[in-house]
Here is the input.
Amino acid sequence: MTDKPTIAILPARTFREGGILAGPRLEDWIALLKPRVMSLVVFTGAIAVLVAPGHLNPVLAVVAVICIAAGAGAAGAINMWYDRDIDAIMRRTAKRPIPAGRMAPGAALSFGIGLACASVLAMAAATNVVAAGMLALSIAFYVFIYTMWLKRRTPQNIVIGGAAGAFPPIIGWAAVTGRIELVPVLMFAIIFFWTPPHFWALSLFASADYERAGVPMLPVVSGPRITRANIAAYTMVLMPVAASPWAVGFVGWPYLAASLILTGIFLYYAVLVLRDGGGPGGESLTNNAPARKAFRYSLLYLFLLFGALAICRLTGV
Here is the structure.
């Protein structure tokens, strides 16, 4: 589990398109940024910018959100450079630019490092060093702690490594206030506890890919039954955590109601996932259909929860 699988990686400019040697295309550079992951990062960071006390020039606020997005993209690019060996083995990642042979690994690494440095420097110039420092920490955590250390060594990779994706609210809040306070830490906690059930739902129907690549995701190491139980457990813990902004008086009863309803629906899907593991070893009885539904809802859940937080705070309810 600790050694990276060794496979041949095609050099850049070996990808043929219409009989002509083709190098990286614009969409390949965009793919390096992991735009679907970035959308959640940008949204939660932007919500923190909106609800933080104080005032930030609108232009600088947009710059701050762009820096958060660029930092997340930089981490994604470096992740793709490091994981190019296992990406080539896994079906869902084999068409990424590096394993598909459309981009040289060094180009992706240079792009990621350059974008990381630019995003941190721009954040410092546009806002303050606290926000820039937290942005740098989030990139470093994702690259060094999650990608290079945890991902291939422990089934707790998502639990601990999930902190990397939870930093944007702290960064966005600090961009406005210059401080790290209780509310953004609670927003961090929401994402932190949301991440395991979100990714474990994915890992249930992608476990063959992870096993083939030697990545010790929880279903591979502990089996689907334990994974399903953990999804349900973490979703139950998420319920009071999601309500915590109301508990500290940051928002009113409408947010509490929204958080309880949204997390209740999430828990409903988690219970369906738990019940689906009725095989002898906890195998799915329905081709992991509940896990797929839970995964899709988990994405919507985070958008709706943070959207409710912003609406309730900005309207004073």
Remarks:
- Residues 12-180 form a domain with the Tetracycline Repressor; domain 2 fold (CATH 1.10.357.140).
- Residues 1-21 have pLDDT under 50 and may be disordered.
- The chain has two domains: 12-180, 181-317.
- Strands lie at 15-17, 20-22.
